[in-house]
Structures are given as C-alpha cells and as structure tokens.
Design goal:
Helix content: 40-55%
Number of helices: 3
Number of strands: 4
Strand order of the largest sheet: 3-2-1-4
Order of helices and strands: EHEHEHE
Radius of gyration: 11 Å
Amino acid sequence: MSETILVTGASAGFGQAICRRLVADGYRVIGSARRIDKLQALQEELGEAFYPPANGCDGSFSGRSCTCQFAKRLGESGCFGIMLAWL
C-alpha cells in the first residue's frame, strides 16, 4: 500500500504540479482547493490515485459537514503521513 499525502491548493499552480508528480511517483494524493471543478478535472486526469474532496464540498472544508466528510475520506484512504499546504 502506498503512502497517502494531503495537498492543499491542488487546483492550480504548484499544488496541481505536485499532485501530478506525487501520483507519478506512486503516492495516493488527497487534494483540496476551493475550485472543485478543477479538482474533478484533475481526478479524471490522474485516476484512482487522486482523491478530491467529498461531493458537495467546495474543497476548503470550511463547514462542519465538509470537515466531517473530509475526515471520512481520510478514514477510507487509510492514514496519511505528509501534508503539503500551499498558501
């Protein structure tokens, strides 16, 4: 089983490039960002190794419901050892 890495700011720029590289290197990546449409497009590109936020969330996990869905997504993917945050 490969390690899972959480990347924030995954919809564009450095965050998106890092997601691509990590998946290419064999990691599973959970990506978050405010632009859910960009995350869904990235999932189509990267396949099953890339997990966007739960449906109905904007990717920023600002609300309680989205935070709970995010925690569930982490539980489904197993533990993760690294978090990369881009501001």
